[in-house]
C-alpha cells in the first residue's frame, strides 16, 4: 500500500474477486428452489396433412398450450425459454424430435399463460412415416440465470396421434 | 502515509469489502432482487475507496523521523577511495 495507484489496484482486484464469489454463491442458491410446474397441451385441429413434393410428410396443427411455470423463477432468473417438441418413433430412428413452437418468458408475471396457436415451425418427417403415428408432446424449459448455472427440464404429455390418411 | 497507516489502510479495505459483500448478498437475497445486491455492493466499493485510498491525516499518526538536513551535513558520507586505472584514451 505504498502509493495511491498501488492501493487503488489492490482495492479493485479484491473487489472484483469478491464479486465473482458472490455470483458463485448466488448461482448455488438456485439449487434451493424446488419448482412445481404444470402444463397441458390440447390439439384443437389438424389443419392439413400432406406429402410434400420431395416425398416427406408434413402436418400443420393448431394447439392450445396452457402452463403455470411461475415456480421456476428465482431472484437469479433472467428469463425462461420454453419450447414444445413432438416426439415419435419410426423404423429408421428410435427417437424423432421436432420442435413445433417456442417462446421466451421474461418475468414471473407472464409465466402463467395459455396460448392458442398453430405450429410456429414446420412439422416435417424424414420420410413418410406419419400416417396414423402416435406421438408425445413434450414441453421443455431452460431457466436462464442472471449469473451461473442454467437449469433445463421437461414435461412429457402422451396420447396424441395423427390421422391415418392424408387430408 | 506512514508504515502504520499503510497497514491500517489495507486492513480497513479488506474488512470493509468483506462485510459489505455479505450485507449486499443478504439484502439482495431477502429482497429477491439481484439488481439491489449489485447496487449496494457497487456503492460500498466506492465508499471503501474513498476511505482507504486518499492520504487522510489519520493514516499519518506515526510519522517517521527523517534525519534533519542540517544534522546530516555534520556527518558527511564516508568517501570510497578508488584506485582508478587509466587506460589509453580511445578516439
UniProtKB/TrEMBL annotation, chain A:
Pfam families: SPC22. One of its GO terms (biological process) is signal peptide processing. Keywords: Endoplasmic reticulum, Membrane, Signal, Signal-anchor, Transmembrane, Transmembrane helix. Residues 1-29 form the signal peptide. One of its GO terms (cellular component) is signal peptidase complex. It is a single-pass type II membrane protein. It is found in: Endoplasmic reticulum membrane. The keyword Glycosyltransferase does not apply. The keyword Membrane applies. Essential component of the signal peptidase complex (SPC) which catalyzes the cleavage of N-terminal signal sequences from nascent proteins as they are translocated into the lumen of the endoplasmic reticulum. Essential for the SPC catalytic activity, possibly by stabilizing and positioning the active center of the complex close to the lumenal surface. Belongs to the SPCS3 family. This is Signal peptidase complex subunit 3. The gene is LOC107963871.
Automatic annotation (TrEMBL), chain B:
It comes from the Eukaryota. It is a multi-pass membrane protein. GO terms for cellular component: signal peptidase complex. The chain crosses the membrane at residues 12-31, 38-59. Keywords: Endoplasmic reticulum, Membrane, Transmembrane, Transmembrane helix. Residues 70-91 are annotated as: Disordered. Belongs to the SPCS1 family. This is Signal peptidase complex subunit 1. It comes from Gossypium hirsutum. The lineage of its organism: Eukaryota, Viridiplantae, Streptophyta, Embryophyta, Tracheophyta. The gene is LOC107946272.
Amino acid at each position: 500500500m505504498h502509493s495511491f495507484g498501488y492501493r487503488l489496484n489492490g482495492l479493485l482486484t479484491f473487489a472484483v474477486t469478491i464479486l465473482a464469489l458472490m455470483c458463485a454463491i448466488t448461482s448455488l442458491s438456485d439449487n434451493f428452489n424446488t419448482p412445481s410446474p404444470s402444463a397441458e397441451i390440447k390439439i384443437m385441429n389438424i389443419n392439413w396433412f400432406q406429402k410434400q413434393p420431395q416425398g416427406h410428410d408434413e402436418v400443420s396443427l393448431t394447439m392450445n398450450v396452457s402452463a403455470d411455470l411461475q415456480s421456476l423463477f428465482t431472484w437469479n432468473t433472467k428469463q425462461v425459454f420454453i419450447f414444445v417438441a413432438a416426439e415419435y418413433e419410426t423404423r429408421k430412428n428410435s427417437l424423432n424430435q421436432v420442435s413445433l413452437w417456442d417462446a421466451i418468458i421474461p418475468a414471473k408475471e407472464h409465466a402463467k399463460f395459455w396460448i392458442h396457436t398453430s405450429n410456429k415451425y414446420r412439422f416435417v418427417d424424414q420420410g413418410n412415416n406419419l400416417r396414423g403415428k402416435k406421438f408425445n408432446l413434450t414441453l421443455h424449459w431452460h431457466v436462464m440465470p442472471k449469473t451461473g448455472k442454467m437449469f433445463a427440464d421437461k414435461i412429457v404429455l402422451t396420447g396424441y396421434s395423427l390421422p391415418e390418411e392424408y387430408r | 502515509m506512514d508504515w502504520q497507516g499503510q497497514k491500517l489502510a489495507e486492513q480497513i479495505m479488506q474488512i470493509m469489502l468483506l462485510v459489505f459483500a455479505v450485507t449486499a448478498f443478504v439484502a439482495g437475497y431477502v429482497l429477491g432482487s439481484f439488481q439491489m445486491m449489485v447496487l449496494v455492493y457497487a456503492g460500498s466499493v466506492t465508499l471503501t475507496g474513498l476511505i482507504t485510498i486518499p492520504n487522510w491525516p489519520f493514516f499519518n499518526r506515526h510519522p517517521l523521523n527523517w534525519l534533519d538536513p542540517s544534522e546530516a551535513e555534520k556527518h558527511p558520507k564516508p568517501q570510497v577511495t578508488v584506485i582508478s586505472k587509466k587506460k589509453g584514451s580511445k578516439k
